[in-house]
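Ticket #4471: structure output looks truncated?

Reporter: J.K.
Steps to reproduce: submitted the chain below (171 residues) through the standard prediction queue, then opened the result file.
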Amino acid sequence: MLIGILQTGLAPEALQGEMGDYPDMFARLLDGHGFTFRTYRVVEGEFPASVTECDGWLITGSRHGVYEDHPWIPVLEQFIRASFAARVPMVGICFGHQIIAQAMGGTVERFDGGWAVGATDYDFSGQNLTLNAWHRDQVTKAPPGAEVIATNPFCTNAALLYDDRALTVQA
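Returned output as attached by the reporter:
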């Protein structure tokens, strides 16, 4: 299965020597599960020609806010809506979680309550799961049709499920 990694940010230079860039990290994490990967640096304006160019999409984290004025953000939102309409599955992590929510009609804001940093507990339908968090922005209003599947007192929309089309996680 070919997974297109939509790279929305660059890993800090201090990490790249040892860990690689975000696509490298995801490829390593998902290695051994039958996936192959193709990276598109959307942060630099590189997009797939079609939403069906890959079997599924993974949208990475980023230092950027989804509400910022970058020319690639509206293009990415259009791509997300087209992928959703074509039923090509998506996974969004951190910024990816936020941009999918925003593209589908949710609200993303800089959270007045500060930052979530480090090991953070989330309630996934009564099951506690500890994930690494590093964010201040968050989905403050889930889009229509999205099911909240994880929450905590700091981040009420920590993970969203969009039927069989998208799964997104803030952490």
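Triage note (M.O.): checked the attachment and the full token line is present. The chain has four helices and eleven strands.
Status: closed, working as intended.
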